[in-house]
Amino acid sequence: MSTLLETLPGSLPESLHDAAAMRIAVIGAGPVGLALALHAASQLPEAQISLFDARSLSKDMSGDPRTLALSLGSVQLLQRLGAWPAEQTQAIREVRVSQAPPTPRRLLGLELGEPEVRITALEQAVPQLGAVLSYGQLLAPLQQAWLALQAQQPQRLINRFGEPVRGLKAKAGGVEVDAGIAEPFELAIVAEGGVFAEQARKAITYDYQQTAWVGTVTLAPGSPEGIAYERFTRQGPLALLPLKPLDGQQRAALVWCVDARDDDVGELSDTQRLTVLNHLLHPSTGRLTGISPLKSFPLGLNAERSLVQGRTVRIGNAAQTLHPVAGQGMNLGLRDAFALVHALKRSDVDAALRSVEWQRAPDRWSTLLATDFLARSFTWRWPGLPAARGLGLAAVQALPGLKSTLARQMMFGRR
User: Fold this and answer.
1) Does the global pTM surpass 0.90?
2) Cα→Cα distances 218→79, 130, 132, 196, Å
3) At 38, is the secondary structure helix, strand, or coil?
4) For 374-406, how does the pLDDT look when each residue is reduced to its tens digit (9 = 90+)?
5) Residue 16 and residue 34: Cα distance in Å, rounded?
6) What does the alpha-carbon distance between residue 13 and residue 366 come to, in Å, rounded to a whole number?
């Protein structure tokens, strides 16, 4: 009888107040939520884990084309879960960061050329700096791994797909999750994403007045492979992320950020877009020869001050939506997820939540503040700012120790 009661919604036997046997609600079955659920299922073998998502389990997400750039640290975390689709990913072997003119080409009589930072996997002694793949390519193996594990332990691991969570209510020693029926859990972890324009505003919010145009481009034969480019322009950052070749053609995902108040990208033809892009990009990039239809979305900052509120934890885009200038949103969410599970494995719920709040703060806030600073700087029209940014790039390239420090933070976050 007690076994039956433990599986009924709304029942919370005293034995489950033990941290090792708690009921956990994971809300959001995107990559971050699925990764957390899988890791928790492995590391907390007695915890009961319910995975909620508004979408139906029958909805096929494998073809979702949104591009993700994952750091080496994220790749390693996903490999630990046994859900990394290595054959479908494009490794990033090098990152090149530069600034479009005007930039200083001479300093103290020295010829600087056009400043460019180049970070390679070889010089950092790693197999790759990161990897690029589509949202669907990452989501599909994570979901498949969860479903396989859930089928083996259906009473402990529970699917709640097609059940949108309507509300969370703090209760003594836990939280009540309302997905049509109010159920008590000892811990709720919110991992739902969404884009800036569609989100409810959090404690810290800022509209950058920028639009991101995204799509894919093809590069001329012979262009360098496995290189991610970030180009600072007067209107905003422009990024090319390497994709696996298709039909023998080299491709890259395009993220083109422009001032929303002076945005004419939508009015340009494909030929005109290619002309503008080839003019903006660094000469070492190679020539773009083709472009897909582009989609646009507004950019902003939307973040919680704290990851933890009572027995509710927010991670990934539920905790912070960032500007894509540094490409760190998904990486930050995965680091949050693994740190949370590690803390729960070592201590009781409340101690674990206090630990996660303090442990994750340096990485979270340094990433948030650095991304926000870069994004806002494109809206400033201060005299000498482009020159200062160009000098900063030249200094990073000239100082191997500084470049290595930045590379390590890019790959693994602040430790």
Assistant:
1) no
2) 29, 21, 16, 28
3) helix
4) 888 876 766 667 777 777 887 888 888 888 988
5) 23
6) 41
pLDDT in tens, 121-171: 999 999 999 999 999 999 999 999 999 999 999 999 999 999 999 999 999
Domains of the chain with CATH codes = 2-60+136-202+304-375 (3.50.50.60), 204-299 (3.30.9.10)
**What confidence tens digit (pLDDT) does each residue in 313-343 have?**
999 889 999 988 877 889 999 999 999 999 9
Q: Is 183 helix (H, G, I), strand (E, B) or coil?
A: strand
Q: What is the pLDDT of residue 409?
A: 86
Q: Residue 385 belongs to what H/E stretch?
A: helix 385-398
Rounded distance, CA 94 to CA 227, Å?
5
Angular region, 197: left φ>0, alpha ψ -120 to 50, beta rest: alpha
Copy the structure tokens of residue 250: 């080299």
How many C-alpha atoms does 100 have within 13 Å on its Cβ side?
19
End-to-end, the C-alpha distance of the chain in Å comes to: 48
- 72-80 and 31-43 helices, crossing angle to 10°: 50
Residue 259: how many CA atoms within 13 Å on its side-chain side? 11
Coil, helix or strand at residue 227: strand
CA atoms within 13 A on the CB side of 176: 10
pLDDT beyond 50 at 9: no
Q: Is the dihedral of CA 360, 53, 72, 342 positive or negative?
A: positive
Amino acid, single-letter form, for residue 163:
E
